[in-house]
Amino acid sequence: MICSKCRNEMPEGAKFCNNCGADLSIKQFDTNDSDKNTQSINFKKEDTGQDSQQFIDQNNNQDNGQNNSNINQQPDNTKQPKKKKNIIIGIIVTIAILLGLAALGSSGDYSEEVSSVKNGHFEDYSSDNGYPNVGDAFENYFDDTSWKAFTSDGIDIVEFNGTFLYYDDETDCCLQFQTYDDGSFDIYAVEFNGIPQNKLIISALIDEVMDEAQFMN
C-alpha cells in the first residue's frame, strides 16, 4: 500500500507509515484509479465541448427553435382572402350600375307614349261601335302582358308582349307600335315565338282580339 502523505510504499496491513508516521488506519484512495476516473470525465467533456447542463439547455433551445420554426411555417387558415372577395363584389356592383345606366339610356321615361297607345283606338274599331281601347282589348285577350317604350334607329316604339293560344299551342306574341308626335300610331311589326308574321296574319290577329273585346264592358 502507499502512504497518502509521503507516497512511501508500505507493506499491506501497516497502521503507521515508517517514513512520515502518518496514521494508515484511515481509508486510502488509489490515486491511479482516481486519475483514471478524472481522465474519463475529462474525455466526456472534451467530446461534447460543454458540461451536461449546458448540453441539455442547448438541446432544449434547439428543439424550441425547431418548434417555433414549424409554427411560423404553418399556414394561418383563420385569415380569409377578404381582398379578393371585396374585388369580386366591387366588380359585380359595377356591372349592375352599368346595366342600370344602359337601360335608362336606351328606354328612358316613355310612360306617356305607352299610355297614348293603350288609351287609343284602331281606326276600324272605334268606341262608337262598342270596341274598347287598345290596352283593354289586348289585356283581355292575352295573358302575362307587359308594355314598354324605346327608340330604335330614330323610330319611337311602344312594344307589347303577351301569351295566347295559337293553333292550341301557347305562343309568345310581341307586337310593336310606331308612335308619332301627333299622338297617332300604327302597327310596326309582329312576331310569334320570335318569328316575324306577315300582314295577313297580323290583320287576322287584330280582328280576333278586337272582336272578342267588343261590348266587353
From TrEMBL:
It holds the Pfam family Zn_Ribbon_1. The chain crosses the membrane at residues 87-105. Residues 3-24 form the Zinc-ribbon domain. It comes from the Bacteria. Residues 50-74 have a biased composition (Low complexity). Coiled coil: none annotated. InterPro entries: Zinc_ribbon_dom (IPR026870). Keywords: Membrane, Transmembrane, Transmembrane helix. Residues 29-82 are annotated as: Disordered. This is Zinc ribbon domain-containing protein.
